[in-house]
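Budget justification, computational time. The allocation requested in the original proposal was used primarily to generate structure tokens for proteins on the priority list. As evidence of use, we reproduce two of the resulting records. The first is shown immediately below.
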Amino acid sequence: MIKYITAVLIFLNINLLASNVIVVSVNGSHSSIKQAILSAQDGDTIIVNSGIYYEHNIIVDKSVTIIGREHAVIDAQGKGYILDITADSVSVIGLTFNNVGRSYTKDHAAIHTYEISNFLFEKNIFNNPFFAFHIERSKNGIIKENIINGNAVLEHNSGNGIHLWHSSYIEVLNNLIYHMRDGIYVEFVKHSKVIGNTSKNNVRYGLHFMFSNDD
């Protein structure tokens, strides 16, 4: 696993140096993250400048690195998920995600993945998420040094901070998680590590394991 992490970090550094850079600014030629992703090619880097971007249901279907500069905020205004990632080799670093939509039928998340691999989610901040991370059937990823601030009160209408389902080779490292249903929820997960996280003042459990082994 250590060799894998080193390889991922080397790949990301090379990718940033070699990629095309697209800059998102509130009053710029690319004024939304959706627009930037539509313009991007695999391997590109998207820099999100300071500002509030009122967006939701953003599909990330290209292998890109998205980096938020100071005070770069994506606010879903309670209308749905924020990033739905369907491409491999995606990194999301340094963004603030606010106000994910709540639902009794869908697990809306600030960052949702499905059947992807080789991802890095680092140093992001989540305020009032339903789920912050919902990782489904994905592998070879790092979720590191994120801050998750929920406002869960009741179990039936709240979500989890970091939710892993049917996934493998995931590292959950040094995250701070507060006031969610479960801070970290792991179900049908193999060959993964949960290290150095702080998870407290949650409705149910700080760390919840279900049907997981080799962790």
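The second record produced under the same allocation is shown here.
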Amino acid sequence: MDQRIQRRLLLQGGFAIGASLLLPRARACEFFATSMRVLHPWTRASAPGADGVALYMKFDEVTQSDRLVGVRTPVAEGARMAGPAFAGKARQDIDFAIARGSTAEFTEDGTHVRLTGLRQPIEVGRAYPLQLVFEKGGTINAQFEVDFPAIDGEGHGAHAGHTHSENKAQGAEHTD
């Protein structure tokens, strides 16, 4: 092999390694839209015969106001907004605004997404494909992880140490 080609390959390899050390690393539970980061989508394992599960996640590093307008996964027929603000409402379509510069979160005791019409049981320790559709940011492919079922509404199982309820939907709004 020509010495120039060897040198070029060596320089390209060195550049690639150097660039990878400088760039921030994405963790397995981080997903990026054009205008925000989506952190740790997760749910609890479904109970036997359950028709749906609640889905939680956090949105931060929001550089442009956007709106979550769709949630799709092959393991459920549909998705809707849920939580105390949606109790008794006839329509609960996915429609969640996230303001620029804010942090918003879907939590167990607040606003969240409910996956409906489960096509299969949602099992502990698994990860399932998920698509989040944003009005301006387009569609991002993600996945959600599954935690242990809640015991009397308490505990976070494998999520001990995570704080899923901090900064509950700060700066976020939803429309009915």
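A brief technical remark on that second record: Helices lie at 3-22.
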